[in-house]
Amino acid sequence: MLYRDLFRLILKLLGLYALIISLFTFLPKAFSISELELSSFIWIFVVSVIMLGFFIFIVFKSDMIIDLLELDQGFEEKKVSFGNVDKITLIKLGIILAGGFLIIEKLPEFIYQTFHIMKEQPEPSAWQKFVERNQPAIKPGVTLAISGLQLITGALLLIFRNKLSLLLNSSRF
User: Fold this and answer.
1) Which residue among 73, 95, 112, 116 has its CA within the 20 to 30 Å range from the CA of 65?
2) 47 in Cβ contact with 169 (< 8 Å)
3) d(Cα 35, Cα 51) in Å, to the nearest integer?
């Protein structure tokens, strides 16, 4: 495998992981913090377009990034060898790591949020209402749904790792 192929692979996996993390981090918090005004929607739209453009640029224009940063230059050997490991196996490994990391990171949060919703919530005291008045209010149900979606995304990455690796390795990418 050439160093160029290795860097192309790393950039594509990094772009895919960045998209997943940013979707589940930015969008829910943006909608919970903002007060549903036109300027808030415009801001959320602009930032979402920038994030999507960043993802598309990293995944589809990885060769341009490699050329611009000269990532494949300066190595004595032109090829890097991983033994009998081919490009598809490395892509599968990256997808497994991303999916596994999502599951490992979000499973405790999902269990906590499920427990938090199931137990009875006492009425907050006047002091608690006063202290929490300026904090963004993300409802526990929303947080549970977000962590559940992240768990599902991690599971889908693990389940469809073969198809995703073929897609990321295809000439269209």
Assistant:
1) 95
2) no
3) 22
Residue 145 lies in a domain: yes
Residue 107's domain comprises 3-119+138-169
Domain assignment of residue 7, yes or no: yes
Dihedral angle of Cα 29, 34, 35, 39, to the nearest 10 degrees: -140
Structure tokens at 1: 């495998």
Q: Compute the distance between CA of residue 34 and CA of residue 42 in angstroms, rounded to an integer.
A: 11
> What are the pLDDT digits (tens) for 117-137?
877 666 767 777 666 665 555
Element holding 30 (H helix, E strand): helix 3-33
| Tokens representing residue 115 in the block | 């427990």
pLDDT tens column, 59-82: 888 889 888 888 888 777 777 777
30: tokens are: 């943006």
Tell whether 131 is covered by a domain. no
